Structures are given as C-alpha cells and as structure tokens.
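Supplementary Methods S3. Complex input for the copper (II) ion-bound model.
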Amino acid sequence: MNTHQVRRTALLPIALAVAACADVAHAGNCQLSVEANDMIQFNARALQVDAGCSEVRLTLHHVGKMEAHVLGHDWVLARSADVAGIASAGIAAGFDKGYLPPGDKRILAATRIVGGGESTTITFSTANLVPGGDYSFFCSYPGHTSMMRGRFQLAAKESLAANRAPGQASVGH
Ligand SMILES: [Cu+2]
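Predicted complex, serialized as structure tokens:
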C-alpha cells in the first residue's frame, strides 16, 4: 500500500460516519448530513457520495447557539481551485446575499446561511461534477473559509482503494 492509499483509507471512515444516518432508499450513498458549530468547525473534513448519484441531498445543521448574523454558517461546493475566488467575492456580496456572489457559475451547490439551532436542506444535481474531480466544500462566512473546508468526492464506492488520481477531464464544455 502506498502513502496515497493509506491517506484515502484514513479519510473514508469520516465520510461514512457523516453519512451514517442517511436512510437511502436506492442503492448507494446520495445523502449527506453535516454539522457546524460555534467553534467555526464542520464535523467532517471529507465528504463522499457515489458516482451513481444523479442528485445529492445535503442537510446542514448549526449545532451552536450563535445567531446567523453573528456567527452563521453555510455549505458551499466548488472546484477546489475556485474556493478562494468565491469566498472573496462572497465577502463583497455581503450577508444579505448569503456571502456568495449571486449567479456565480463557479458555485456548484450552496445552502443559505443558518444560525445556531437551525438546519437547512438542499438537493443538487451531480451533472456538472466529474468523478474523481478535485472539489471542496466550505463555509463562505467571512473569516471561516480557511477553517471550514474539506474535500468532496464523487466516487464509486467499490473502487475507493484503487481510486485513480483525479483526471484531466474538464468540468466545463
Ligand atoms: Cu461558517
């Protein structure tokens, strides 16, 4: 086993634990549940759904007590290379826009901002995601992005250990 395989294997239980409560009617894991807290943390550093999922249902739960305008959180999905650009544009957009630039095509999925005790659920298509692509999830609230981000993978569950390196396939057309 090489070091890459060891690292992927170490990440897997985290993703599985996050998805453990999902009650999936069809084959494969297409549902995710993520918690965020007053310590500016997500409870997951990596998330994964099966490549066979046409849609993903994600629930974000703010388990803290801070109100949304004081210390809120959202969950945003983008190509890893786009995270910094979206986050800075989001700060400029401001709280009323959910700290995200409206209509920005780089945003692959995003929840609204929630405060302590609140939850929000979104369903998003995987049509624009490439299996094995380099994606990240993050919180766009100002100052949170560096502490609240992780890897997002669209992968075949059977082939994780043999998961090939992200290919050169482009997301755009
Ligand atoms: Cu946050």
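The mean pLDDT is 83. DSSP finds three helices and eight strands in the chain.
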